[in-house]
Write a structure and sequence with these properties.
Keywords (chain A): Signal
Radius of gyration of chain B: 30 Å
Helix content of chain A: 10-25%
Protein name (chain B): Transglutaminase-like superfamily protein
Domain DUF3857 (chain B): 53-187
CATH architecture of the largest domain in chain A: Sandwich
CATH topology of the largest domain in chain B: Immunoglobulin-like
Radius of gyration of chain A: 31 Å
Structural class of chain B: alpha+beta
Number of helices of chain B: 10
Number of domains of chain B: 3
Strand order of the largest sheet of chain A: 5-4-8-2-1-10-13-12
Largest interface: A-B, 54 and 51 residues
Largest sheet of chain A: 8 strands, mixed
Domain Transglutaminase-like (chain B): 272-351
Signal peptide (chain A): 1-22
Oligomer: heterodimer
Chain lengths: 658, 630
């Protein structure tokens, strides 16, 4: 039985074998002529240090009757300049549970400087406890100067077979060659994924027969030997504004344990297919159990909450209730030990606990609700090819009412029904439907997210003063942000801050919320203001953008590597009516502008006109109609922002004295 | 009967305890300008011997809002010499009723290694608590023992802004055989009572109302009530010491922590002697040795036990070629000695706030070491942790404050270098060519003194970072392109000279036939202090500077000046400001600006004058010239 299964997947491995030539792993301590004469990296002049070579080797070994996962690592790094000195400081994280721990069993580290080799002494490796789960081994190399090569090699022994580390090909400095080699006995089966756009130069898989012997068993296991390598790996730069998680782009290989066949018979399945995952969720698992606390929740709330009104009303009331009941402790907590009852009583918990409570209550109210797993924006997108449970770090509720589906996350008090917090706006998630199969579901962010200003102004030429009133209207995500500001700031400091932001000459005389013009997704505030010290000689020079949306173009780099992702579409709009002061003519007004991005991706419009009844009207709109833009839009977006900034800062209306 | 009495009594006390810290018992006036109220902050230090003390504390804080949580301060630092004996936190609701309890094991235990430190044995246990409602109260009780009696606490009766205090109490208990010194700071302005008790001294403060921070405040430590203590005989990480003066304290550092750590290998001595062979000028020698240190070492900090206070030996630094401030300073001192130059290990409280070591109160103070080299006619200062700072440059990290020079004759308090406003100078000259839509400018910036401090780093920065720096510097110019940036870091004269070419299409405003632009395109002072409310404290300006700007501005063909800037000339206690635009020809303007900002401490009543001064500068700097088509 055991044998037949093994053969089956070996066959698959053989089929996908692709053989190229790998570089031979050098002996520790040997430096080639080309390595020592290497002084600068032509492909990246800004590089402060470069990996000359890097090798990883993972395999299983029996030591003292235990099976250990062994990781061997060997790297040589050339320090190119002083800014690269930090690459001589090394940290190796080590995981531990209450009983077991990962251990460095061998380590060597040497600085090569002009033919001299200066080792790190044993006492100069420090082990530091970070928290309950992690310690780290830290050290730095001696004699680090520009041009030295630092070399280190270690062997780590781990009792955690699920911790089969993948391989990071790409880091913040370039690598000339990086190779990962693994020998995995057929008893362990891992899902593997290659992430990023760089190509492997070696991608090799073969079978080594009888490579692993477990004491006491006659049968030796065969191993799959994997070799992956890349050459000339560029540094990973992740400093771009408005980008999704760097994890979506950084080149690496990930492994996830999917199956373990015990040497004594029996198989532990970890993850393999969504069907298996679904089954597991329904039968056991922390999450499944926590989701079945309907009774506790129906007893713990006012029964009216679960029964009054139509389905949509019930859903909204429950969402409001959960939002206000809980304080979020800022943790995501999907795979932690969730205790929803306890969290409910304490009125605080992780996002998972809060949203599981929400699901339980919606369920208790008889609504069609399911849990949706997703990854937050900073985590990276979950792989769609096969289930990788560690890709998910967050959960929310999906409730279907009539034809409409609503995604709910009750961690943020200011979030209206049906809108997800920004950190959840990460394209899609997996809905764990407990009656049927699980399925992928897209996250569509709220479309209307605007900051709009409607202003009326009058100029008092004799006082060189501007007076007026403006309404500030925030919608969607902008409204959520504004709610947060208003409820955490006292009114006087809010006004003070606003005045400081605009100009020292700007004074807000009154401020009120206009509830009549506000709703769940919209907030209108009215301000009366005055502005002194107008630029006035014989003529009056007025920049009509007394209030600005932003001062700077967020896009300054000449090139863009990654797609642009704002999270949601947005609009900035300014509508102004300014009276022509008595005794003055309109001498000039700003030129009209009208720019747009292809496929209705975005628009910028500026229009100023005389309304022929003693006033000028200004209309400005800057719309970004999409949440995501591919790189091809970069130039266009950059220009659009540039025009938006120019409109706000350089527009002038000139009134001429009659 | 008896039983019921007991029960009744028990019930009463229980309620009394429960209500003791209810929110409603706080005087309403304590809530004003306050994010939290310290109900009780009580600490007793029991010194049993010069190498053993026990600290018992209780701190009860009612947190009024989110920003008040930082005042809970539920954390305890420890290391090999300090062990925590007791640690517990109880959370009370607004009524003073217990809602949660945290034992020592519930506190998060993590390393207290700071940024830039490779390893240290210092650790911290702290409470992570997510409040569900405000107000809430935390009752923290803590007890620890330590052999490090050099760390006698400095007791603050109030430890931050926006924090009222109902009661703060400090007790020092010690046998009469143990001698101690103390210094009271700012107690007279607050309600603090000192009473001698049999076994020591007690200080109690009640009813301190919250203070608000103000821009250009003196440092909090300078006006807040506090008492410093120090034992005459103390222990630090197993090393014993005795000091009643800075002279003695410095002597202790020299004899116990430095002496014997300056040896070097013969080969290194020979190497450095070869480097200076034939050079007579000591200043030149210092530069060469300093350069040698900069070229060969880097800053790495490892702090373990006495290693937090004692430098690693020069031989060891020579071997690994790294060290922390103490190790690198000691190493440089040893190298200088090898070439016949005496220098002094100097302790400083480093940081931009210019905090002096306490002149009148010798005790374990400061957080950094650097080197003082006295020559016949001048003093040289060396910052040994930097690979880029020129010899004898003192930046904002160590300038103008009392520092402790340490040598075989003991310690000596001296003032580190101060740059005058005139020495901290930036001179900008530029040619600006205005086109109808685009502006091109070539400029040259020369920076010295404290202004050099902001610039020398640019000489090692990537092109990208330099661009970022200038885009932020000129954030009022849209769409500014840095076409070229050259910087010369002249380490001999300690000045940077930059040549920069820029262009922008985002600076001119066009209105029909008119073009408007502010002639001060390259060096604006935009900051205006907050509008006055009621100013409570004096204004402190730590450092002055001088900016001089001269721009030749070419206006486009076919335009003439419709209106220009009127000359401005201001002079007051805060500084001097002068702007003048002169027309050199039909198409050329000469813009001249001079801004001198003086350091100093100014009366709180002059706040509005200061604000007006800064406001005028900001307005004039943004003032525009109008050009009109001919």
């Amino acid at each position: 039985m055991f044998n037949t299964i093994r053969k089956k997947y070996y066959l698959i491995f053989i089929l996908c074998t692709l053989s190229l030539v790998a570089q031979e792993k050098p002996e520790f301590g040997t430096i080639s002529q080309s390595e020592s004469s290497f002084t600068s990296y032509d492909k990246d002049k800004e590089a402060t240090a470069v990996y000359l070579s890097e090798y990883g080797h993972n395999y299983f070994d029996v030591r003292d009757s235990y099976i250990w996962l062994i990781t061997k690592y060997h790297a040589k790094v050339k320090i190119l300049n002083k800014d690269g000195f930090k690459h001589a400081d090394i940290e190796i994280p080590l995981y531990h549970s209450k009983k077991n721990k990962e251990k460095i069993v061998k380590i060597k580290a040497v600085t090569h400087n002009n033919g001299m080799s200066i080792p790190v002494k044993t006492a100069e490796f420090y082990e530091e406890e970070i928290n309950e789960k992690w310690t780290q081994l830290k050290f730095t190399f001696p004699n680090v100067q520009e041009g030295v090569i630092v070399e280190y090699e270690y062997e780590m022994q781990s009792p955690f077979h699920f911790n089969f580390q993948g391989w990071e090909f790409q880091t913040d400095i370039p690598k000339l060659y990086s190779e990962f080699y693994a020998e995995i006995p057929g008893n362990w089966l891992y899902n593997r994924s290659i992430i990023g756009s760089l190509k492997l130069s070696v991608d090799e898989s073969r079978i080594i027969s009888s490579c692993f012997k477990f004491p006491g068993l006659e049968q030796d296991s065969d191993c799959e030997a994997l070799r992956y390598a890349m050459k000339d790996i560029p540094a990973f730069k992740d400093s771009e504004k408005y980008m999704l998680s760097a994890n979506n782009y950084r080149s690496r290989i990930e492994f996830e344990l999917s199956e373990y066949k015990s040497f004594y018979g029996g198989t532990d399945k970890y993850t393999k297919t969504w069907k298996a995952v679904d089954r597991e969720f329904k039968t056991d698992g922390d999450l499944g159990v926590q989701l079945k606390k309907k009774n506790f929740f129906s007893k713990s709330v006012d029964p009216g909450l679960l029964t009054q009104g139509d389905d949509l009303t019930k859903a909204k009331n429950i969402y409001e209730f959960v939002k206000n009941h809980f304080i979020w402790n800022e943790e995501y907590g999907v795979w932690n030990d969730n205790k929803v009852k306890n969290a409910f009583d304490q009125k605080k918990g992780s996002a998972a606990e809060i949203n599981i409570s929400l699901i339980n209550l919606l369920n208790a109210a008889g609504l069609n609700v399911n849990m949706m797993l997703l990854a937050t924006r900073n985590k990276g997108l979950p792989k769609k090819t096969h289930p990788v449970m560690s890709d998910f770090n967050y959960l929310i509720a999906k409730v279907d009412i009539g034809e409409k589906a609503y995604l709910l996350d009750a961690t943020n008090k200011y979030m209206p029904f049906g809108m997800l917090p920004y950190h959840s706006l990460n394209y899609y998630g997996r809905v764990m439907d407990f009656d049927n199969d699980s399925y992928w579901f897209d996250i569509v962010p709220e479309k209307s997210n605007a900051i709009m200003l409607r202003a009326q102004m009058t100029i008092d030429a004799s006082e060189k003063k501007l007076t007026g009133v403006f309404d500030l209207i925030n919608t969607g995500y902008k409204k959520v942000a504004q709610d947060e500001v208003l409820s955490t700031t006292k009114e006087d400091s809010y006004i003070e801050r606003l005045e400081e932001e605009i100009s020292d000459d700007f004074h807000i005389m009154s401020h009120e919320k206009k509830l009549k013009y506000s709703d769940e997704k919209k907030l209108t505030e009215r301000f009366n203001f005055e502005m002194e010290n107008l630029f006035q000689e014989d003529n009056i020079y007025l920049n009509p953008f007394v209030l600005k949306f932003f001062d700077n173009n967020p896009f300054t780099a000449s090139e863009r590597t990654y797609p642009i992702d704002f999270g949601y579409p947005m609009r900035y709009q300014y509508v102004l009516n300014v009276k022509i002061p008595d005794g003055y003519n309109v001498k000039s007004i700003p030129e009209n502008k009208n720019f747009s991005l292809p496929d209705n991706g975005g628009v910028l419009k500026l229009n100023v006109s005389d309304n022929n009844s003693g006033a000028l009207n200004l209309f400005f709109t800057f719309d970004l109609n999409s949440a995501h833009y591919n790189n091809g839009y970069y130039e266009g977006l950059k220009q659009l922002f540039s025009e938006a900034v120019k409109s706000q800062s350089q527009s002038l209306i000139v009134f001429e004295k009659i | 009967m008896r039983l019921s009495f007991f029960l009744f009594f028990f019930a009463i006390t229980h309620i009394a305890i429960a209500q003791k810290y209810s929110f409603s018992k706080i005087e309403p006036s304590f809530l004003k300008n306050s994010d939290a109220v310290v109900r009780l902050d009580e600490s007793t230090v029991l010194v049993k011997s010069s190498d053993f003390m026990e600290v018992t504390s209780k701190r009860v804080v009612t947190v009024l809002n989110e920003s008040g949580s930082k005042h809970v301060n539920a954390k305890v630092f420890y290391d090999n010499e300090t062990s925590i004996k007791d640690l517990e936190a109880i959370i009370l609701d607004a009524n003073g009723k217990e809602i949660e309890k945290f034992k020592e094991k519930d506190f998060i235990d993590q390393t207290a290694t700071g940024e830039g430190t490779l390893y240290s044995d210092s650790r911290v246990k702290y409470l992570r608590y997510t409040p569900t409602k405000y107000p809430y109260t935390v009752v923290l009780t803590e007890k620890h023992t330590t052999s490090d009696t050099a760390f006698m606490p400095r007791w603050f009766f109030m430890d931050g802004y926006r924090l009222s205090v109902e009661k703060s109490e400090f007790n020092l208990n010690l046998p009469s055989t143990i001698k101690y010194r103390y210094k009271e700071n700012n107690l007279a302005d607050y309600n603090v009572i000192r009473s001698e008790i049999e076994s020591g001294v007690n200080y109690t403060a009640v009813n301190l109302k919250a203070l608000e921070s103000e821009d250009f405040d003196p440092e909090f430590i300078e006006f807040a009530p506090n008492v410093q203590f120090a034992l005459e005989d103390f222990h630090l990480k197993g090393v014993e010491g005795h000091a009643t003066s800075w002279k003695e304290f410095g002597g202790w550092i020299y004899n116990s922590l430095l002496k014997g750590r300056g040896e070097l290998n013969a080969s290194t001595i020979q190497k450095v002697q070869t480097l200076v062979r034939g050079i007579e000028d000591p200043k030149e020698k210092i530069k060469i040795v300093y350069q040698f240190v900069q070229d060969n070492t880097r800053y790495i900090s490892v702090q373990m036990g006495i290693g937090g206070w004692e430098p690693i030996s020069a031989i060891e630094v020579d071997r690994v070629k790294y060290g922390d401030c103490k190790g690198l300073t000691n190493y440089t001192m040893a190298l200088l000695k090898a070439v016949g130059i005496e220098s002094y290990y100097t302790i400083v409280s480093a940081g931009p706030n210019m905090r002096s070591l306490d002149y009148d109160f010798p005790s374990l103070q400061g957080n950094h070491a650097f080197l003082n080299v006295p020559l016949v006619d001048e003093e040289i200062w060396l910052e040994c942790t930097s690979q880029v700072v020129p010899a004898n440059f003192s930046g904002t990290f160590t300038d103008n404050r009392y520092v402790l020079k340490v040598g075989p004759d003991g310690g000596e308090m001296v003032k580190s270098r101060q740059y005058t406003s005139e020495q901290s100078k930036q001179m900008t000259t530029a040619n600006i060519i205005i086109g109808e839509s685009e502006i091109n400018a070539q400029l040259k910036i020369k920076s010295t003194g404290i202004q050099y401090n902001q610039k020398y780093g640019l000489s090692n920065d990537s092109k990208e970072d330099v661009e970022k720096y200038y885009k932020r510097h000129w954030d009022y110019i849209n769409d500014v392109h840095i076409l070229n940036h050259d910087i010369v870091n002249d380490k001999d004269n300690i000045e940077t000279i930059e040549n920069i070419d820029i262009k922008t299409s985002g600076y001119l405003s066009k209105a029909g036939d008119r073009l408007l632009f502010a002639p001060n395109m390259l060096n604006r002072n935009e900051y205006v202090p907050k509008r006055d409310k009621e100013r409570n404290r004096d204004i402190v300006i730590n450092r002055g500077y001088l900016d001089e700007d001269e721009f030749i501005i070419e206006i486009p063909n076919g335009y003439e000046i419709e209106s220009s800037l009127k000359p401005v000339k201001l002079k007051n206690d805060f500084g001097e400001f002068e702007v003048n635009v002169e027309q050199l020809s039909e198409s050329t303007l000469h813009f001249k600006r001079r801004l001198l900002m003086k350091p100093g401490k100014f009366s709180k009543t002059s706040y509005n004058d200061y604000r007006d001064f800064r406001k005028t500068i900001s307005r004039v700097d943004a003032s525009k010239i109008v050009l009109i088509k001919i």
